[in-house]
Amino acid sequence: MILYTIVPEQLIYPIDDRVYAKQKIVNCNGIDMVVEACGDSGYSIIRILSSDPQHYLQYQPGQRVWIH
Q1: Residue spans per domain, the chain
Q2: Mean residue pLDDT across the chain
Q3: φ/ψ (deg, to 5) at 9
Q4: What is the C-alpha separation between 28 and 14, in angstroms, rounded?
C-alpha cells in the first residue's frame, strides 16, 4: 500500500510506548547517551546525546557498555 500524504509516518503508524519504556538516559565517562538494558547487566547504546565528534570515536550506537 502506498500513501500519498503530508502527514508524518509516526502519526499514521504510531510506535508502541513499551519500546521507549526500556530506554533510559545515562552518563558514561561524561557523555550522555540513551541506552537500553540487555540481559547480562550491560547496556546497548541507542543514541549518543553529544555534538562532540570525539565522543563518537569512543562510543558508537549498538556498542555494549557496562555502567556501575
Answers
A1: 15-65
A2: 89
A3: -60, -35
A4: 31
